[in-house]
Protein 1
Amino acid sequence: MKINLVVIATILVQSSAMPSFIERDDPFSNWKPAGLGDVRGPCPMTNTLANHGFLPHSGKNITEADVLYALPYYLNMDDTTAQGLFKIALTTVLTPNATTFDLSDLSHHNILEHDGSLSRLDYYFGDNHDFDQGVFDQTKRYFTDSTIDLQTATNARLARVLTSNYTNPTFGLSTIGTLFSFGETAAYIGVFGDSVSGTVNTSWIEYFFENERLPVELGWSKRPDVSSAVLGSLFDRVVNATGTSFPYPASDVHLGKR
């Protein structure tokens, strides 16, 4: 029997680009929270992807291939956004020249993690990585309708920042922290809602934050376009709706330049 070396080479190249976890037949139904030895961080979306098994469930040693597979395949983000977010995540790893990260690395204060989170306590108050219902209750106090529009989402974000500034004696937002604070609001509208109208189903957002689970059972499916251009436009709209400005172009949000 002849061995086709071209086929073997193709398989080896493709396998090197595949994620380090094994995908299940019906991944949405295999959700489970972190268990003994697993780690999670302050980012609800990366926690959610790990809970679904779309990123390694352990939350450890997440590779570029993992991110470049999970974000485009399950959220319809483009490769540019996924790669930029991976590069930014590596900046939270304290080991020099790291090529992988753990979700717990994202908890390192004032790198990506920031004060005034929508769902986490500030670092000053202790636990800045686990979901905090009291903090999220402050956020969702603004979600008074069945749909969240962009101005409502913006107001909820700003209220959390102002509350944090008032109550936290060490409050501060770095440039990249400010970027992510705006970007997180833009992202949940883009990933779960209508990027044109800037609206999103309230129950989906509450379910996502409170369960760290994609709201498939409530009717959500991945959006047709969560490209860097779409997220950049939403970012600009959130900034503008806040009545402020951000000193860098929106494209920097997705390319990991800032």
Protein 2
Amino acid sequence: MPSTQKVGSPGPNNDKIGGVPTIHYFDFQSRGRGQVVRLLWEVRSSLSAFNTFLDLHLHRPEKREEQSDNPSPFAFTNTIHATQDAGIAYEDIRYSFDEFPEVKKTKISELNPTGNIPVIELNGKILTQSYAILRHFARQLGQYEGQTEDEKYWADAMCDVASDWRTLFIIAFFNPNKDQTYPAHQSGDRNRFLGALETHLKSNELSQKGPFVVGKNITYADLVIYQICHDENLTQDGRAGLKDYPRLKQLIDGVEGRENVAAFLKSERYLG
């Protein structure tokens, strides 16, 4: 039988999206494309991180010197007080890998003709395709997608890079010959995408303005990138797997520095 859990209490942002959503996804720890949707519902937006960055690194250099023990120019994201919470209560229905094939033939195929999950039910509507779901909620919430057209394009583009990486990860990780395919992926495609993301984040004018894809403000694309790094076990063990990718590490630190994300990662609901 699937497990069902009600998470959080409905708040103003549930009103923005039209109610309390129900997510159908695998019981696969805190991993996968469905987890990115849950993470969006967990994330906090902070006070003006950009203003703090300017204060510490441009207007008040003496403060920067006081923090010289932390070499990251974006480390401030871990200490800023948060004021606005995405605060979306939801119902979480999880299916084991063993039971899903049967559920796929019935309940899931009724909701989504492709039989794929995640699927969201919300006030009589059915939402499918994880990245379209993220963009939909970002628009409804009025944040998490970028503010200008250039920011929206860049968030979409970086999401697509991470999505391409995830596709190759799934092919290698769930292969019957995983013992051969996954190590080859780790030394090949994974390194290629890590290098591409590092280069994009370092060289793009928007990404240079703060820790996230579009600089000062977190977007759904940051969560997509975070989740694939998490699922490849690169966010654990002191970020050892990201030692050659310092700019990407700053993005990961920024996501985990969000107050609600940090609380989630320390809670019983975080399943690894």
